[in-house]
Amino acid sequence: MAPQNAALTLFRAPKAGKKYFTVVEADKALAYVRPVTRDLMDCYAHVVDIRRRIEKPREQDNREHLEADYESTMDHLSELVDELHQVGVELKDFERGLIDFPAVHDGREIYLCWQFKEQSVCAWHETDAGFAGRQDVAVLDDDKSCDKAA
């Protein structure tokens, strides 16, 4: 029987066929992921701006043009999210460019966690912990020390 004060953490076993990253592989993937994430963040900001202008139009705004721009920008945003999914990563926050790289540690699935402002993948967290549960990757077996954000 587990102690009553034990933290409840849901451990996920690795799934066959799913892409998992080491810290080194995740860092290498940033060469592709970083520019896609930058485009995604810009595109998302544009979507938010268009939506705001549709809801509260300026005098010079044409609703038809705004709605068409909104639809095409949403399509582009969806394509960028799909691009990240094809790499095997998960987008967690559009505004911050927060990305999780699935990984395996001690026989369970975890996430290597990166956000756009960081130079490299510096943190990880349990699958149910989210950003607030981030820990330094130095505790993993990859012999990687965290290279803090620029």
| Sheet of most strands | 5 strands, antiparallel
Content-based structural category = alpha+beta
- Alpha-carbon Rg, integer: 19 Å
Number of strands: 5
The N- to C-terminal Cα distance equals 46 Å
Poorly predicted regions: 1-8
Our estimate of the beta-strand percent is 15-25%
Q: Give, in spatial order, the strands making up the sheet with the most strands.
A: 1-2-3-4-5
Please characterize this protein's 3D structure.
- It is a single chain.
- The chain has 150 residues and is of the alpha+beta class.
- The chain has one domain (23-139).
- It is built from two helices and five strands, in the order ααβββββ.
- The chain has helices spanning 23-55, 63-87; strands spanning 90-93, 98-105, 108-115, 123-126, 135-136.
- Strand 4 (123-126) and strand 5 form a beta hairpin.
- Helix 1 (23-55) runs antiparallel to helix 2.
- The longest helix is centred in the N-terminal third of the chain and has 33 residues, at 23-55.
- It is elongated and about 60 Å long.
- Mean pLDDT is 86; it is low at 1-8.
